[in-house]
Amino acid sequence: MNIVISAGGRFHALQLAHHLEKRNSLTRLFTFSYTNKDQQLISPAHVSNISSCSMLDTLFLKCRLDRIIHKSSYNVFKDNLFDYLVSKKISKLGDSDVPKIRSIPRDAISSLLGKTGGKIDLFVGWAHYALHSIPAARKAGAKIIIESGSCHILEQQTLLEQEYAKYGVPFAPLHQKNIDKMLKEYELADYIMTLSDFAYQSFVKQGVPKSKLLKVTCGMDVEYFLQARTLRSIRQAQDQGERPGESSSSQLYISENNKLWILKRVQDDKIEGPCHPELDSGSTIILKSNKFRVIFVGLLNLRKGIQYLLQAWNSLNLPEQETELLLVGNLQQDLKFVLQKMPLKKNVIFYGSTNRENLRELYASSSVFVLPSVEDGFGMVMGEAMASGLPVICTTNTGGPDIITDQEHGFIIPPQNIDALAEKIAWCYNNQETCKIMGNNAQEQIKKFTWDVYGEKVYEIYKSIV
User: Fold this and answer.
1) For residue 245, how many other CB atoms are within 10 A of its CB?
2) pLDDT 10s digit of each residue in the chain, 466 long?
3) Which CATH class for the 3-219+452-465 domain?
4) First to last CA, the chain
5) For 222-448, which CATH superfamily applies?
6) Whose CA is closest to 112, among 125, 131, 98?
7) 161 class by beta-carbon count within 10 Å (0-12 exposed, 13-18 middle, 19+ buried)
8) Judging by DSSP bridges, how do beta strands 292-297 and 323-328 pair with one another?
9) Ramachandran region of residue 410, left (φ > 0), alpha (ψ -120 to 50) or beta?
10) How far is CA 10 from CA 17, 379, 401, in A?
11) Cα gap 387→368, rounded to integer Å
């Protein structure tokens, strides 16, 4: 098979491309997120990196253009530019013009021409990155698959508009041009790939024929996060007075976008200072390894349901010196607006974004993972947390029911339900030993959802289509 993938962001596109390359079926990955580190995953010979889009991102951040250009409008422009440039490159695959594409090494040209002859079997385009590319791919003989990481855009719009109205947020959750573009992509596609039953059913609800819909549960980086169990064992030993190995003291800096504070992780059992977003950067917080810690990972916005998590946390009478709510991710404008009127307890930490190594350690320091999303096509962070040995509390609108059995690997609750969320957090606090057993069960369960399993399932579906 000759398969072309187009995805502006990273998403799970790199993993998909990797597994297709292993099966000699990847013709080209178009992206603007490919880095030198990714060469271990995918050969540069199969990647066209649209560098102009990544340069635009750098310019937008360094010049702080968000002061004069709304970020959503900028993203619409950048994503359409990416789509347009990809469409031009697709039309040249197999032509004599191919050597002019600088990102393709000369030693790869002959093999590329011999393999495709300009023909593409499948074009897999990420939603809102593919509209202009579809005609070019269709002309090359491709069947079209739109990859949807979220639920149907109209379902997403309905859920988020209700949420914004409920909390009085004075701006729109989605850009209308993105909505219009994605609706056209759905219409032009031969198939739409979803990652969860929740996302699949949202398309059915919007009238998309089931014959047009595909579903494969997303893979996760299970092996990497399995190591969190070892980190947790070391910390438990340290809490008991044992000190195996060298000290792991380090300093972690909060994302500059949040400008909240600097967090320092050491082996001392103390905390300095409250952890409210009003604090200036430079405030120090030291995590206590033996606390009951609830962790969330992802963008801090209304879509992820953080407003309900905070209200649930506020309603609990858990001892502040023994418990923490750790929110890992960048704070978004809609939640910032809501937080202006919401009281916060001193044991709520807005951590900011972090890298994979630090994230694994944060999972290892935590007791339970919560994903309270209002809308989430599939929350890959659930799998990371499960691999780390944590039970998961999630809503039905996350893809959680596809990988979690209620009361065995955690709890599945309705979205927007403060009482249910508070009840399950309290249960985990009051039943911490049983909670650990659930975490162990979750860790075994998630081993069924590796990237290798995902790659094999997707490949079989692609073969059946071609």
Assistant:
1) 8
2) 999 999 988 889 999 999 999 999 999 999 998 989 999 999 999 999 998 888 888 888 888 888 888 888 888 899 999 999 999 999 888 553 344 444 545 445 444 444 555 689 999 999 999 999 999 999 999 999 999 999 999 999 999 999 999 999 999 999 999 999 999 999 999 999 999 999 999 999 999 999 999 999 999 999 999 987 666 666 656 655 544 443 333 333 334 333 333 333 323 333 333 344 444 444 445 566 679 999 999 999 999 999 999 999 999 989 999 999 999 999 999 999 999 989 999 999 999 999 988 999 999 999 999 999 999 999 999 999 999 999 999 999 999 999 999 999 999 999 999 999 999 999 999 999 999 999 999 999 999 999 999 999 999 999 999 9
3) alpha beta
4) 8
5) Glycogen Phosphorylase B; (3.40.50.2000)
6) 98
7) middle
8) parallel
9) left
10) 11, 15, 25
11) 12
- Domain range list for the chain: 3-219+452-465, 222-448
CA-CA distance, 202 to 127, in Å (whole number)? 15
Amino acid at 331: L
Q: Are the folds of 3-219+452-465 and 222-448 the same?
A: yes
Strand order in the sheet with 122-126: 47-49, 26-31, 3-6, 122-126, 143-147, 191-194, 213-215
Helices (H), 175-328: 176-188, 197-205, 222-226, 228-239, 306-315
Q: How far apart are CA 220 and CA 34, in angstroms?
A: 19
